[in-house]
Design brief:
Blueprint lengths: L1 H22 L7 H10 L5 E5 L2 E6 L2 E7 L5 E6 L7 H10 L4 E4 L5 E7 L7 H24 L1
Antiparallel strand pairs: 1-2, 2-3, 3-4, 4-6, 5-6
């Protein structure tokens, strides 16, 4: 009797999990697809700079969204003219998740984040990634200003 109950619970769980994935299919997107998704999500200032790069402008800041050939996404946010220390950058990396920072060859602070598309992505995942990256960039600016 216990085995049937466990099987029934597992069956219900498996069916309910399958339903959520069926609502939106996983796929890999090219630059045009990502641009369409961003515009549909309300971002009106989206510009294609290169074959694999979109520039998203919001509230006076620019955010790069790279689309790799394999569908992976990378968010890129850079500031110039600062005099940031490696200690400040390392503190960010030690205390934050979902993004990482470094100093480029000119000593400017850069924030980046990656979204793996190995198994495909949904539009909701892409929208959430961009929102989280923009929030992270704001927190990064605050972190640099405070240190």
């Amino acid at each position: 009797m216990k085995n049937r109950n466990v099987f029934g619970i597992v069956s219900i769980f498996a069916c309910s999990c399958g339903t959520s994935y069926a609502q939106e299919s996983l796929q890999k997107y090219d630059v045009a697809g990502i641009e369409r998704i961003l515009r549909a999500d309300g971002y009106s200032a989206v510009e294609r700079l290169e074959d694999n790069l979109l520039l998203l402008r919001l509230n006076g800041s620019g955010y790069g969204i790279f689309v790799d050939d394999d569908g992976d996404l990378q968010g890129y946010y850079g500031l110039s003219g600062g005099n940031e220390s490696l200690e400040t950058i390392n503190k960010w990396n030690a205390t934050k998740r979902f993004s990482s920072a470094y100093l480029d060859d000119d000593g400017d602070p850069i924030l980046k984040a990656d979204l793996d598309a190995t198994n495909g992505l949904t539009e909701d995942q892409i929208e959430a990634f961009v929102r989280l990256f923009i929030q992270s960039a704001g927190a990064f600016r605050d972190h640099l200003a405070a240190n």
